[in-house]
Write a structure and sequence with these properties.
Number of strands: 5
Shape: globular
Distance between the termini: 22 Å
Strand order of the largest sheet: 1-2-3
Order of helices and strands: EHHEHHHEHHHHEHEHHH
Structural class: mainly alpha
CATH class: Alpha Beta
CATH architecture: 3-Layer(aba) Sandwich
């Protein structure tokens, strides 16, 4: 399963809601999935920080090496210290959550992938095939790249396609598990894999209730328990009927014998708070 960037991790901490993703993975692990790859796609966020001028400097059909060099250069820039800090926090939280959930598998980060020659090969393939996808799935492509979008956003599709090919070819990952909010990328990825003659499956978890964002993002954080909350704030947030009903769907999977919902939340938050 892949996890994206959250710009507020250092300031507000991780959301308790991210455990919904791990609850699903824990269940699927018991239903036949032998091993998980936790893919940290947070470094893709740096595309949002690229200036139009830097993107234009790449030219019309930039080579893979130039794209990856630009992304890494931007990531390592002194002015992107806040991004690097949040990337480090995301990795630490994900590793802790894997242990907490008892998942079998490994953590892989996109920042390291940008330096991996195997990812560069996958990006070559993605750049070659993404033009076909943009023509065959024009409506999907419009949703992924809205009118007046930052020109840098055009890099997202090939980067995402390369992700799927890289994880499959280098690590044997035969499918992707993620929220319904990623459905348009999933359509493009499935077409890409068909063009590669590769067998691949995408599985989507249900969206959270209205008013609660995708668990690993920061949107809607006002109603969600976060690791910077104290005990009183956690108890108060869990009194919200809609939010409590949502949390009751996944948090009991991590409860110890005799724990009520509040006690499990307090223990989990304390564990996460200690690692960052």
């Amino acid at each position: 399963m892949g996890f994206g960037y959250n710009p507020t991790l250092i300031v507000k901490g991780e959301r308790l809601d991210v455990l919904e993703c791990f609850a699903w993975m824990r269940q699927l692990q018991g239903d036949g999935v032998t091993e998980w790859v936790i893919w940290d796609a947070s470094s893709f966020y740096i595309v949002n920080r690229l200036s139009p001028g830097k993107v234009a400097s790449l030219g019309e059909a930039p080579p893979t090496g130039s794209i990856l060099e630009l992304l890494l250069s931007e990531l390592e820039s002194p002015k992107r210290a806040d991004v690097r800090e949040n990337l480090a926090a995301r990795e630490t939280y994900l590793r802790c959550l894997m242990e907490l959930a008892g998942l079998k598998g490994q953590y892989l980060g996109s920042r390291a992938a940008f330096r991996d020659s195997r990812y560069a090969e996958s990006l070559d393939e993605a750049l070659a095939l993404s033009s076909i996808i943009s023509k065959e799935e024009t409506e999907i492509y419009r949703k992924l790249l809205p009118v007046n979008a930052n020109p840098a956003n055009a890099l997202y599709l090939p980067l995402e396609l390369a992700e799927a090919a890289y994880l499959q070819d280098a690590y044997g990952v035969e499918g992707k598990f993620g929220p319904k909010s990623e459905q348009f990328f999933d359509v493009a990825i499935n077409l890409f894999q068909d063009l590669r003659d590769a067998q691949y499956v995408t599985i989507r978890s249900p969206n959270p209730p209205e008013g609660i964002a995708t668990p690993y993002l920061n949107d809607g954080i006002g109603c969600s328990v976060v690791t910077t909350d104290n005990a009183a704030a956690i108890r108060q947030k869990l009194k919200n009927p809609a939010y409590r009903t949502y949390v009751e769907q996944f948090l009991p999977a991590f409860a110890k014998a005799g724990e009520c919902l509040e006690e499990t939340a307090l223990r989990v938050v304390k564990s996460l708070k200690q690692v960052v």
